[in-house]
Amino acid sequence: MPGKTPHSNGKEPVENSVRNNQDVEMTDEKSSMKGKGKKSVKEGEDMTVVVPPSKATKQSSQPPPADAEGDISMDDPDKEQDLEVKVDPVTQAVTDIKSNFALLDRAVALFDSRFTLRALRSISSLRKRLTPEIISQVIAETFPPTSASAAVAKQLLTAIGKADVPLGRLSSTDMEIDNDSKSPKNGSKKEIKDIIPEIDIFLAILIQVHLFDSKQFQSGAEFSKSLADRIHSLNRRTLDSLSAKVYFYYELFCEQLAPLPPSPRSPIVAIRPTLLTALRTAVLRKDIDTQAAVIVLLLRNHLLTSHISQADLLVSHTQFPENAANTQVARFLYYLGRIRAIQLRYTEAHEHLTAATRKSPASNCALGFAQTATKLLLVVELLMGDIPERATFRASNMEQALRPYFLLVQAVRVGNLEDFETTIADHADTFRRDGTYSLILRLRQNVIKTGIRMMSLSYSRISLRDICIRLHLGSEESAEYIVAKAIRDGVIEATLDREHGFMKSKEVGDVYATREPGEAFHDRIRACLGLHDESVKAMRFPMNQHRLELKNAQEAREREREMAKEIQDGDLDDDDLGGDFEGM
Fold first, then answer.
1. Separation between Cα atoms, residue 301 and residue 231, nearest integer Å
2. CATH code at 277?
């Protein structure tokens, strides 16, 4: 255009391919882009950009201070950590305990047991920090002296030996709030709030945990008895999860009192009427948590005193709740599997124990239960004639605990009776402590059967004398009896020649031509389907969500009818429909 010079974009005529010797200032392209909407810089004027120095530059520009000798002192990075305020562990423990009170308040207000379970899960982190001083401080700061629950607070303090601690003590935060409330501006004191029963029951559970960890079993049993009576009289559905924990520790206290089980005079026999009463009340009140916990405790009680028939009657006359917690279901299946194993019903015992190991929590807090259930499951598999997989013993958290059982499985798999008896003699204390010694003694016949099976596969014909020598049996007659019983039970495919005194094996057919692979595959499919069904049942859905969806769908259909009617009447135009149909 006339009057304007064309843009050269920095490309000027170059003579002999060399620019002028004058220095050329390099400008940032972004600075030219930022000039939109502002006054343009006149031609020929230099534009100076001032960049403020960063904090790191300021700090680096200042020389570090020198000491008396003239050396530069290096900054200690630990000084900042030393300047941090250290929190008193007692104060922190008190704060953590009192933080659960808000969860209990929400559980009561919303009638949701999940908040109560969150408070109970915090006990594991509080357990190591519980002392009588901390518990008494929490009780003194929580219960005012003029409240209706002051008598309950005095009972809690008496249980931990702190009956002289006065109630109504204020914490530092409460003191500031109280001073503000007493100021002339406010003119009134802070109102005294009633303490809900869930809070004092939670504190009572903490006292139970402290008494059990400090091995005050007699005091804990007496305190638990009074606590169970109080819970029975309250009749509040929001106490279901807490009452289950109370009965759990009540059983543990009685198990540690002399005479110890399996003595018939043990205190655990005396608390059975209390547990049965609690079970009957829980069933009438539809208290699922207490019902599941008490059934498990009764089964444990009967097994500790070796009353297997009574435990079987309890299982047959009660119905375990379907919506019980997963941990209680795992315990119930474990005790049920132990009962069935003692009753020689190994197939049912194997099913229950397999389900118990699958339902056991994967965290380290339940490692002991997983190990105990796995030990019993291994013994039941051996009694069924199966050999456990080697991967079970290679698990990092199971290898050391299952070492005696690994040696036992090796002896049974090979059919070596001598190694089997040696293993039992070396680890008898471990097997008795695990409660599997009586079941392991039944494996002697299985070891003999396994040895006969190995010999039937290795030899087409073998004499009874050689069988007697290899299995370390007393006489050939006992070897003949054992071989005959193994043939009748279907353990081996062979015939017995009594006149010549030898066993002749039959040809082994193809195992895949039988029904055994199909049955094993069917069992795995059934286990997977059962796990899927239980997972679907355990899913949580919002209450009355289907009604809300039906309501929204009904409103949408009504709006569609109204719009269709107005369109037919001609009351709606394109603007009302919100559409621009020019491009259609």
1. 21
2. 1.25.40
Q: Which domain holds residue 105?
A: 94-175+194-365
On whether residue 278 sits in a domain, the answer given is yes
pLDDT of residue 573: 57
* Percentage of the residues of the chain whose pLDDT score is greater than 70: 76
Q: Check whether 242 has a pLDDT greater than 50.
A: yes
CB atoms within 10 A of CB 260: 12
Which residues lie across from 502 on neighbouring strands? Answer: 463, 497
Domain count, the chain: 1
**Residue 187 Cα to chain centre, angstroms:** 50
From residue 506, give the alpha-carbon distance in Å to each of 265, 292, 451, 455, 495.
57, 53, 17, 12, 8
Are residues 163 and 157 in contact, defined by beta-carbon separation less than 8 angstroms? yes
Phi, psi of 496 (to 5 degrees): -115, 125
Residue 76 has what pLDDT?
A: 52
Q: Which spans in 62-161 are helix H?
A: 78-83, 89-110, 113-121, 123-126, 132-142, 150-159
**55-110 pLDDT per residue, tens:** 444 444 455 554 544 454 455 555 445 445 577 888 999 999 999 999 999 999 98
Look at residues 526, 371, 508, 492 and name the one whose alpha carbon lies nearest to residue 436.
Answer: 371
Cα–chain center distance at 476: 55
Give dist(CA 335, CA 357) in Å, integer.
12
Contact of 247 with 228, CB cutoff 8 Å? yes
Query: Which residues, including other chains, have CB under 8 Å from residue 99's CB and lie 6 or more apart?
Result: none
Taking the C-alpha atoms of residue 311 and residue 339, their distance in angstroms, rounded to an integer, is 8
CA distance 378 to 361: 19
